[in-house]
Design goal:
The chain is an alpha+beta fold and 482 residues long. It folds into four domains: 227 residues, Deoxyribonuclease I, Chain A; 46 residues, no CATH class; 74 residues; 34 residues. The protein is built from twelve helices and 14 strands. A hairpin with a 5-residue loop joins strand 2 and strand 3. The longest helix is centred in the C-terminal third of the chain and has 38 residues. 24% of the residues are buried. About 2% of the residues have low confidence.
Length: 482
């Protein structure tokens, strides 16, 4: 996920295969947070300051209102709770230690995972997903493991089976009849070793809602893991949006052109002349209607910075990868490695071009005295335009990820900062101001004034000169005439 354009590639595969919720393992992003992507999807992620391991969940934009609360547990575990028309759904995304990790590291991870699963309400539909590095095998341990698994069970597989039995989960990849190829979730770089180590588990009482679990060989985002998908028939419920909140912002920038003004003003005048007994509400409706007809609304879609040539190369890499899965040809391996390097270079080049174009637009905006556009471009160049919805923290520094907790925290914060003194006697008292002996109380010298003016920016200098000129004018007016 650190590679440029990787998130855009993943989102394109989500659109191609109509994936609503996607779990990510090994994203290697530092810290925790919540961001809105270029496609208006929500990405929840959890990591550590060093950017080790890392997990995340992408929620498709049509379901973003279904998100109730999420919790970044560690750099290996993240959970999210969503609303549905049946029950609440809790998704726990994991990135387990490898088979060669020490027993202490494994024990710490599974103890933490057990604590998270135990805190999930019993009425919720529980989904446990992620890269467990666990081979569960095909030995039936009903109702946790079916006969449709593959491989030989290892130590991580035993640990996953135990935690699934403890919390009443079914490992979905072991209960559906598929050939061996759709079962493999990981392929080694040489193409010889294949394993089923990624899993999707669901609560036993809701196992009938799970209609299929299999890997997709078509999706490609340059990963040695396959795209593991699950079909679940549960309707998610979003909060109902009122009509008033659906109004889009008008594109008032078009009013800068004279032709648009000449079209907009007569449209408003004509509508006003047809009405009688106008009030504020009717006037607003007239301006709104004329604005939608003449100006249109602003499209908030972010500009795509990846060029068509780069997307074509990504599509070519996907085709080569599909051929490589069928035939272990050394020529195809070389072609795949070559095009991966090519895509990296093309993505970096597209990114540089994107920022150079923004810098050019900012320069043109500055020359045209377009302050709004200039500040907008400046925010993009300074990386402030990335819509980061990082959760706020409580007094102890813990993240608050639910809307109610955040609103309660804001209420307490403003109550603390906006406290008013009720006792009028305190207001009448003289303030006890301590003088700083290091500050000189005499009049500033001309040199000190010049040095202070030099430290001001150009806008502040202009404002200061305008203020001084107004003071001089007032002083001249107050002088007596002879």
């Amino acid at each position: 996920m650190k590679e440029q354009s990787k998130l855009a590639q993943i989102e394109k595969e989500m659109i191609r295969y109509k994936v609503k919720i996607l779990g990510l393992s090994g994203i290697r992003w530092p810290d925790q947070g919540e961001i809105s992507t270029s496609n208006n999807n929500i990405l929840l992620y959890s990591g550590n300051p060093a950017g080790e391991h890392g997990v995340g969940i992408i929620i498709e934009k049509t379901l973003r209102k279904s998100l109730l609360i999420w919790k970044p547990v560690s750099n290996r575990i993240i959970s999210a709770r969503l609303n549905s028309k049946v029950k609440k759904i809790t998704i726990v995304q994991c990135y387990a230690p490898t088979e060669t990790a020490t027993a202490e590291v494994k024990d710490e991870f599974y103890e933490q995972l057990t604590s998270v699963l135990s805190s999930v309400p019993k009425s919720d539909i529980l989904l446990l997903t992620g890269d467990f590095n666990a081979k569960v095998g095909s030995v039936k341990t009903w109702p946790t493991i079916g006969l449709r698994g593959t491989g030989t069970r290892n130590n991580n597989g035993e640990r996953l089976r135990d935690i699934a039995e403890q919390h009443g989960l079914v490992i979905g990849g072991t209960i559906f009849p598929h050939k061996e190829i759709p079962k493999y979730t990981w392929v080694s770089p040489d193409g010889r070793t294949k394993n089923q180590i990624d899993h999707i588990c669901i609560a036993q009482r809701w196992v009938k809602s799970l209609t299929d679990v299999r890997t997709g060989r078509g999706p490609d985002a340059k990963s040695d893991h396959m795209f593991l998908t699950a079909d679940i028939k549960i309707k998610l419920a979003a909060k109902r949006v009122t009509e008033g909140s659906r109004l889009k912002r008008l594109d008032v920038r078009k009013l800068r052109t004279e032709a648009t003004k000449q079209e907009f003003v007569p449209s408003v005048q004509q509508k006003i002349s047809r009405r009688q007994n106008l009030n504020q509400k009717l006037t607003q409706d007239i301006y709104r209607q004329s604005g939608e007809e003449v100006l249109g609304t602003v499209n908030h879609q972010k500009k795509e910075w990846i060029s068509d040539e780069t997307w074509a190369a990504i599509e070519q890499r996907r085709i080569i990868r599909q051929q490589l899965l069928i035939s272990n040809d050394p020529t195809l391996k070389d072609s795949h490695s070559s095009i991966c390097r090519k895509i990296k270079k093309m993505a970096r080049k597209d990114k540089r071009k994107f920022y150079n174009d923004i810098a050019r637009d900012a320069q043109i905006a500055a020359e045209q005295n377009n302050a709004r556009l200039l500040h907008r471009k400046k925010d993009i160049l300074s990386n402030k335009n990335h819509r980061k919805l990082r959760p706020i923290k409580d007094k102890n520094g813990s993240l608050l990820t639910s809307t109610q907790e955040q609103l309660r925290r804001w209420k307490d914060y403003f109550a603390e900062t906006n406290t008013h003194v009720q006792n009028t006697e305190l207001e009448d008292q003289e303030p006890n101001i301590r003088e700083d002996p290091t500050i000189e109380r005499g009049a500033p010298t001309i040199r000190e004034i010049v040095e202070a003016i030099k430290k001001l920016n150009s806008i502040e200098q202009r404002e200061l000169m305008a203020f001084l000129q107004s003071c001089l004018k007032q002083e001249k007016l107050q002088q007596p005439t002879h």
